[in-house]
Write a structure and sequence with these properties.
By secondary structure, this protein is mainly beta. It is built from 3 helices and 19 strands. A hairpin with a 5-residue loop joins strand 1 and strand 2.
Length: 251
C-alpha cells in the first residue's frame, strides 16, 4: 500500500506528492511486462532528477495494509524503514520539457521476499530498480523439458510449477551467483513457468540497453535472499539488449 511519491530535482527542493487515498497494488499480478500506474497525470518541472522515494505502509502493526497471501492465510509484510523513511531509488532520470516521461519501477519478489525467524510476518526488502522507458528491451526464451526435469539436479516442483527461474546479470559473468552472492548477484530474475501449450517459457522485462548474461536454475526455491546459497546453474549465456527489441535466449 503506497501513500505517495517524492521526487528530488538536481536543482531545487524535493517535490512531495501525497495521494488522496492510499493505492493498493498487487505486485504478484505484475509479471511479463504488466504494470500498474502509481503516479500518473502529474506535472512537474522539466530537467534532471536525482532520486525517487516511495512512501509505503508496511509495518508489523496488526494492520493489513501491506500483506502477502500464503496457503496458511494472510501475513503482514514489513518493508524495513519503509514507513518511516520511504523507499529511496537513487537513480537519475530526466523529465522532458512539454512531454511525458515514463519510468517503470521493478520490484523483484524473488530477491525481496523473506521469512524472518521469530517475527510475525514477512520481510520485503527494497529490491527495486528503475528503468526509463525511453530506452529498454526485453529478454525472453524457452527452457527444454529435459533441463527442468533433470532428476540429478533439480529440486523444483513441476506439479506446482515452482522452482524454475532465469537469473540475469549485468555484463559478461561466469560463474553465475545466487541472490546474496558477494560478487555476482543477479541484476534481476524471471520466473520460468509452463504455458498453455505445455512449454516452459520466461520473460525479463524493462532491461536497460546494454550487455548482459543469463543462466537458468531449477533450484530457485532453495535460494534464500538473506544468504549466499550453493545452488546449481546452467552455463551462462551472454547477449546484448537493444532499444525496443526482444532478445531470445533458450536453455
Amino acid at each position: 500500500q503506497f501513500t505517495g511519491v517524492t521526487l528530488k530535482p538536481a536543482d531545487g527542493e524535493q517535490i512531495e506528492i501525497t495521494f488522496d487515498q492510499p493505492k493498493d497494488i498487487d505486485l504478484f499480478t505484475l509479471t511479463d511486462g504488466a504494470t500498474a500506474d502509481l503516479l500518473s497525470d502529474t506535472t512537474v518541472p522539466s530537467g534532471a532528477y536525482e532520486w525517487v522515494r516511495l512512501a509505503v505502509n508496511a509495518e508489523f502493526d496488526n494492520v493489513m495494509d501491506s500483506y502477502a497471501m500464503r496457503p496458511t492465510g494472510m501475513y503482514e509484510i514489513r518493508v524495513p524503514s519503509g514507513s518511516q523513511n520511504g523507499l529511496k531509488l537513487v537513480s537519475g532520470f530526466t523529465v522532458l520539457a512539454e512531454g511525458a516521461t515514463n519510468l517503470v519501477i521493478d520490484w523483484d519478489l524473488r530477491k525481496a521476499l523473506s521469512d524472518p525467524q521469530g517475527q510475525p510476518g514477512l520481510h520485503l526488502r527494497p529490491a527495486l530498480r528503475i528503468t526509463d522507458m525511453a530506452a529498454y528491451g526485453t529478454l525472453a526464451g524457452a527452457v527444454a523439458l529435459e533441463t527442468v526435469d533433470d532428476k540429478d539436479v533439480c529440486t523444483n516442483d513441476l506439479m506446482l510449477d515452482t522452482g524454475n527461474a532465469v537469473y540475469v546479470y549485468e555484463g559478461v559473468i561466469d560463474p553465475p551467483g545466487d541472490i546474496g552472492d558477494a560478487t555476482t548477484e543477479p541484476f534481476t530474475t524471471a520466473t520460468v513457468s509452463q504455458d498453455d501449450a505445455g512449454n516452459y517459457t520466461y520473460q525479463a522485462n524493462f532491461l536497460p540497453v546494454g550487455e548482459y548474461s543469463a543462466a537458468f536454475t531449477c533450484q530457485a526455491s532453495d535460494d534464500d535472499p538473506e544468504l549466499d546459497d550453493d545452488i546449481v546453474f546452467t552455463k551462462p549465456q551472454s547477449f546484448d539488449i537493444g532499444d525496443g527489441l526482444t532478445t531470445e535466449i533458450n536453455f
